[in-house]
Amino acid sequence: MRELYYWLLTGPNGGEICKVVRRDSHTRRIGDAITFLRKNLTRPVRVEEMARAARMSPSSFHEHFKTLTALSPVQFQKQLRLLEARKLMVTQAVSVTSAAYQVGYESLSQFSREYARMFGVAPKRDVEALKGRVVPL
User: Fold this and answer.
1) pTM of the prediction?
2) Are 100 and 85 in contact (CB under 8 A)?
3) pLDDT digits (tens, 9 = 90+) for 3-54
4) CA 65 to CA 30: how far, in whole Å?
5) Which among 48, 54, 63, 57 has a CA at the least distance from the CA of 24?
């Protein structure tokens, strides 16, 4: 393990790895906020809550979050929800309506619009296409 750590830390991405493991780095703090988002996926989370989870001011949090993820915190939360809904529909055969509500959407039409915007097709058609590509073991 020591040798593995050595090669990781002295390799071309060693600086980025250090940022992730250092407790007070901005990268680590943003990671803490993302963990907080994942744990609270189904409820509305305000940027101020995420900033608190990251131990940062809201303005600093927003700036560092966008730099690290290329998305605003709200866009990132939306993407997490849509990806989770997609996973539920494909792997657990959950209906579109059920998936939307399980990941925190209150409006099915809003969910469908945002889903189609992100994946390029309506949820039901997307799931049917994905299930058609799955090869049984």
Assistant:
1) 0.78
2) yes
3) 877 777 788 877 776 665 666 678 888 989 999 999 999 898 999 999 999 9
4) 6
5) 54
CA dist 33 and 89 (Å) reads: 26
Q: What backbone phi and psi angles, to 5 degrees, belong to 12?
A: -65, -20
CA distance 120 to 122: 7
Distance CA 88, CA 61 (A): 30
Q: Structure tokens of 103? A: 């990941």
Q: Is the CB of residue 81 less than 8 Å from the CB of residue 104?
A: yes
Using the structure block, give the residue that is written with the tokens 């945002």. 114
In the chain, where the domains are located: 2-70, 76-133
Which of helix, strand or coil describes residue 125? helix
Overall residue count recorded for the chain in this entry:
137
Domain 76-133 has what CATH class? mainly alpha
